[in-house]
Design a protein that fits this description.
The protein is mostly helical. Helix content is about 65%, strand content about 5%. It has 2 domains: about 350 residues, no CATH class; about 110 residues. The chain contains 23 helices and 5 strands.
Length: about 475
């Protein structure tokens, strides 16, 4: 997958989010702030941080030390974290089991997941937070087995990193670990092992609490930065919480459960719901794995029930919980090897079925998207034109492309991308060039089809005033279905 897309632009799926990450990497590499990093798409002073930029730092460093593009360095860092996550999962399962069959089967199912293969080679933070979350769990299992306090320290560091990079992913791993540790405690209540189980619960709790305290400090800091920019004030944690969590109606919509949670997501992770059902049946018939089966299913479902809207709209969010299903399938396959030679044969056929299903989903769903020709896309045409007709230190004003980073990234320009949902008072601020762009000049106004002309008269009048101000005295040309005033 990486070979196929090595030189392709990151416009295949959810280009909005991929280019947002890449835009931050670009300006970090250009010498921008490392903590208050810039994502110049929402207005001066350009900083609208969401995640803590560990991934962005590494990608910028790699791009700076090599001749790789941001797209390529971002892909390499994502793949490196993905491979690290595979190795970490292997070590977790190996510590909790005997022999090599179970860890190999779980790692194999993990690395064969179509969704994981696709998104691991994207310019996104998903594999980074997955690695940190699994490393946190590994550290806790190591502490439980050895009692060595250094593992509490490493677990806390990994928990902090995971929470700062993406709490919506770390959350489900922390919850399922807590449930697993409680199950261990209940099982050992009447044995001397209960003391170590209690100590492990306290260690995990300490790591999670510390990570949440630091996360809250980061969110407060990030929200303060967002408030300073034109659009960022509508992107703070409180402003987007409703969008993140969704509605009760979504949670109780059976059709959504069937079409998304057990439809689209299962298809992209396993290829078929029948594979999941077969794995559940195998584990349900083995008392040794029933608790693990239940916990893994809960780990998959919990994010859908918590961050419902995010998971329903963004298919890449299943990178947060695909590992629970692939581990479930891996446990089922690995457990069959304990059933003698016949079980080993069945396990071998099951492993082949997993590989074939992965190949089918990749070939029919993901690869065509990667191979699509983006050279004539609106974004690339506009970016090519803007680079030719504007200076590097000039900014863009964009209408009709939401607040997407696609054009600012490929044009290598800072921008104010005005979304149709921008609040009226913030739209009025666009007229103030100093507030919107700082001391930078505006190199081009890009007007793509948008809904401002369909709004009430006062908003249309304000929109017309903005267009008039920033188009005055400029040439105009139609590019990619948009009008570019330059």
């Amino acid at each position: 997958m990486t070979v196929i897309s090595w030189s392709a632009p990151i416009l295949d799926m959810f280009a909005f989010r991929q280019t947002q990450t890449a835009l931050s990497i670009y300006w970090i590499q250009k010498g921008g702030p490392l903590i208050a990093y810039q994502t110049p798409v929402a207005g001066f002073p350009w900083s609208i941080p969401f995640e803590f930029p560990i991934y962005q730092w590494l990608a910028a460093l790699l791009a700076g030390l090599s001749r790789l593009s941001i797209d390529q360095s971002g892909r390499i860092i994502g793949i490196a974290f993905f491979l690290g996550a595979v190795a970490t999962l292997y070590r977790i399962v190996a510590r909790l089991s005997s022999g090599r069959a179970l860890p190999l089967a779980c790692a194999g199912a993990f690395v064969a997941c179509p969704l994981a293969i696709f998104w691991a080679r994207s310019v996104m933070i998903e594999s980074t937070v997955l690695f940190f979350s699994l490393a946190f769990i590994l550290g806790i299992t190591q502490y439980h087995a050895t009692g060595k306090k250094r593992f509490v320290f490493t677990s806390t560091i990994f928990a902090i990193c995971a929470a700062l990079v993406k709490i919506t992913t770390f959350y489900c791993f922390a919850i399922i670990l807590a449930m697993g540790l409680l199950a261990v405690l209940v099982r050992n209540l009447s044995t001397p092992s209960r003391k170590q189980a209690l100590r492990t619960i306290l260690a995990a709790g300490f790591a999670v609490v510390v990570s949440l305290v630091i996360l809250m400090a980061w969110v407060k800091y990030a929200d303060g930065l967002k408030q300073q920019s034109l659009i960022g004030s509508q992107l703070t944690s409180s402003a987007i919480s409703g969008f993140n969590f969704g509605t009760l109606a979504q949670r109780f919509d059976i059709q959504s459960w069937l079409s998304i949670m057990f439809g689209r997501a299962i298809y992209q992770i396993l290829g078929s719901v029948w594979m999941l059902l077969a794995a559940v049946c195998i584990l349900a018939m083995n008392a040794r794995y029933r608790v693990a089966c239940v916990l893994l299913l809960l780990g998959y479902v919990a994010p859908f029930l918590t961050f419902t809207n995010l998971h329903y709209i963004h298919s890449y969010y299943q990178f947060a919980n695909f590992a629970f299903l692939t581990t479930l399938v891996g446990l089922a396959i690995g457990s069959l090897t304990n059933k003698g030679s016949a079980g080993t044969v069945v396990a071998s056929f099951a492993a082949v079925a997993v590989a074939l299903m992965s190949w089918h989903v990749l070939k029919t769903y993901f690869v065509p998207t990667i191979r699509a020709d983006q050279s004539r896309s609106r974004t690339i045409e506009l970016a090519r034109f803007i680079r030719k007709h504007t200076k590097e230190d000039q900014d863009l004003l964009i209408f009709g492309m939401d607040w997407s980073s696609e054009l600012p990234y490929y044009a290598t320009r800072k921008a104010v991308a005005v979304p149709d949902w921008l609040a009226d008072e913030n739209l009025e601020r666009v007229l103030n060039a100093q507030q919107s762009f700082g001391s930078d000049g505006v190199g081009a106004l890009i007007v793509c089809p948008n809904s401002f002309e369909l709004k009430e008269a006062s908003i249309r009048s304000l929109y017309d005033a903005i267009i008039t101000k920033y188009s005055y005295g400029r040439s105009v040309q139609a590019v990619g279905g948009c009008l570019v005033h330059f």
